[in-house]
Model the fold of this input.
Amino acid sequence: MSKVKCLNSNMLKCLAMIFMLLDHLWATIVPGNQWMTIVGRMAFPIFAFLLVEGYIHTSDVKKYKKRLVFFGLISEIPFNLIMTSSVIFPFHQNVMFTLLLGLLTIDELEYMRQNKNVKTVGITILKVTLYLLLGIIGFVDYGATGILTILAFYLFRNFKLAWIGQFISLLLIFVIFFKGQSVVIPLFGTEYFFPLQGFGILSLIPIWLYNGERGKKSKAIQYGFYLFYPVHMLVLYLVYRFLF
Done:
């Protein structure tokens, strides 16, 4: 089994970045290639999974939260540019803020797990509800479903058959609950409509190959992954403006 689990955290991040790049290429300069956004659906679940792993292994949760806030802020203009060609667009926030709300949610649940009493449980329920509402009214990428995805990976992390819980959770979140664009799949002479985000379930394949290791550790690599997000969006926007 150890030979099968061949992907470390850095490798998963690279895969997720490639999937995200394909999705954003489709959203900007090659919109006719729908396969790109289908593959791109796998990016967010991998980032959600890695957020949970990062939370479990981090030595400083506060710094983790601050990093997400910082890179969320510097990514907002590039995100707005590739999504709307506007510098300011208050009705759709980038995925860093989704990850931040997810981090706040699982941190609150972890605190409740370690401090089990009626007061803590009540406060935790209120805060988690607030974070989910912020995901909706704050127009963060993926909305509350993004936070629920992170929550699913957190809740099933220590289960013996975690893969079953992960699969059922993503099936419910991406296929049943998530309201978005659908893809037409012709099969045996009949056309079926399948939710585009449903292809995110395929992200479980590389996730299940995760070996629990981080990979090479360095500040350059760590911040390089964060910087890729705003930089690649800005580059794509500039290329789009040059070509069109």
